[in-house]
Q: What sequence folds into this?
């Protein structure tokens, strides 16, 4: 038995665990978000400490997103469904490690003078990855290359959708920073500020609902590997 035969079940188990880690983190974040948005009785400093903690917890989602990319393509490579050899897989894991490092750098330096610049580059990177994922998936659905299995191309296309949902959530968080959050942090929020904050978090929740549906569909496609006639 070759190495891939031994490694496949281990990588598959890791992929499933990362999916559970991702979904569990999302549920915790969503519950904490709405608690913060509705807890007007808490002191402003305490609400902002909870908000900073929420942003720390949100890193778990980003961990899972990045880890799922090399794990998924490694499984597809073991099945002979992507044109990646050992060198290609090594490059993919190295690139994912760099993305992982940069994602954490953006988080660690978010309050530093260079925080805005790093965040802008993080957004640009995600736009590029969305375009690559969606473009390769659509091209594969049309031509059968580079992803010959329809279910795999659909998974990649839906993953692009997941990243779009993530950007939508971050957009509403950014709008909160531009609007009600400074007033909340300074304990001068009006009823209108609080109402706007709650509306933005509800909109972010709807983006999360779409993200969850996409993730469950991705999981089902990976588990069932349906044949499309």
A:
């Amino acid at each position: 038995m070759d190495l891939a035969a031994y490694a496949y079940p281990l990588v598959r188990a890791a992929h499933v665990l990362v999916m559970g880690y991702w979904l569990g983190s999302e549920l915790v974040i969503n519950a904490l978000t709405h608690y913060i948005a509705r807890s007007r009785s808490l002191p402003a400093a305490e609400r902002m400490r909870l908000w900073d903690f929420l942003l720390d917890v949100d890193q778990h989602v980003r961990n899972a997103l990045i880890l799922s990319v090399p794990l998924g393509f490694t499984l597809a490579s073991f099945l002979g469904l992507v044109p990646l050899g050992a060198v290609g897989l090594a490059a993919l894991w190295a690139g994912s490690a760099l993305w992982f490092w940069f994602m954490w750098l953006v988080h660690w330096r978010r309050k530093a003078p260079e925080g805005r610049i790093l965040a802008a580059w993080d957004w640009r990177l995600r736009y590029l990855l969305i375009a690559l994922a969606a473009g390769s998936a659509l091209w594969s659905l049309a031509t059968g290359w580079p992803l010959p299995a329809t279910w795999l191309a659909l998974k990649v296309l839906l993953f692009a959708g997941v990243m779009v949902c993530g950007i939508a959530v971050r957009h509403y968080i950014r709008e909160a920073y531009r609007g009600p959050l400074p007033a909340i942090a300074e304990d001068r929020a009006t009823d209108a500020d609080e109402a706007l904050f709650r509306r933005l978090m509800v909109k972010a929740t709807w983006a999360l609902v779409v993200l969850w549906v996409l993730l469950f569909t991705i999981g089902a496609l990976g588990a069932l590997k349906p044949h499309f006639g």
About this structure: The helical segments are 3-38, 44-78, 86-108, 115-143, 150-178, 180-185, 191-224. The two ends are 32 Å apart (CA to CA). The chain has a mean pLDDT of 95. The chain has one domain: 3-224.
